[in-house]
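Please, structure for the following, as tokens.
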Amino acid sequence: MYELESKIELLKNFVAGKSVLIVGNSESIFGLGLGDKIDSFDVVVRMNLGRVKKPFQQGTRTDVLFTSVPKLSESDIVSWFDPKWVVWATSKRDRVPEFRNINDRLIYHPMSYWEELYETQAPSRPSTGLIAINFFSNHCACASVSYIGFDFFETDTFYHKKRFGLLRKKLKTPRPHDGDSEKKFISDLEYRGKLFRLS
């Protein structure tokens, strides 16, 4: 476990001095037509089940995948994303799927980073998107960090819609995240020039 967490330094080296874009999974990403602009970044980060369905809107590349979803299988990760790095984002290490063939790409997000971020969101848990934004903005030496596809739960996560063929129906359980708190956290990063919204 320590070895998988210590590999985070390899990811930090990978993104050092590069432009990084974190692509969220809200429905608000569709209709913007920014696919080419998304692909122009040095590093494109996606999350969970947010596979590319419409390249004109979402771009095509995935260099880093942050996931907290136990049902996302190894074969799905390779066929949907084929990222250079896979980061298990949540603190729930007991839920990590078996990743035999991509173990060399697998990294555990450091527990200390998660706990520090959780203190800003408690009693809600930080979303996978916020975990990724916090990591690249506050713990890496990127040339720039930008984001798109986040609206703080004002619209649905796009893959909860049947038409995308990823989940059969919307989730009925309440969200464990606080959209207002996450928006405040991200607004503060923007105010300090550590994060930029792609538009």
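The chain has one domain: 2-197. The chain is about 35% helix and 15% strand.
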